[in-house]
Amino acid sequence: MTEALHRLLANGLIDRRAHAEAPPRVEYALTGLGQSLVDGPMNALGRWADEHGDELLDAQERSARSIIDARVITTA
Predict the structure, then answer these.
(1) 23-61: pLDDT as tens digits
(2) Left if phi > 0, otherwise alpha if psi is -120 to 50, otherwise beta: which for 31?
(3) Omega within 30 of 0 (cis) for the link into 41
């Protein structure tokens, strides 16, 4: 998680605010750039997943079955 937060910070997607408290406390918040990512592409991806989720699951199940079938054939 720390590495992911550092990448988000480095790319300007989040801000970090450290509080001088005991125990230490840090808050993270989206920047305007980060919010634009959520509002645009991430929401579009969510809508796409809602629309095509069943197709994705079907494809994953077919793939898993073909892997299992291939293992059965090679070990038989």
Answers:
(1) 999 999 999 999 999 999 999 999 999 999 999 999 999
(2) beta
(3) no
Is 38 found in the same domain as 24?
A: no
The residue segments making up the domain with residue 46 are 32-76
- Which residues face 14 on adjacent strands? 30
Q: Residues 70, 59: one domain?
A: yes
The two three-digit tokens of residue 10, written as one number: 């480095």
Residue 24, SS3 per DSSP: coil
42 and 24 housed in the same domain: no
Tell me the backbone φ, ψ of residue 15, rounded to 5 degrees. -110, 150
Helices (H), 11-42: 32-37
Residues 19, 38 within the same domain: no
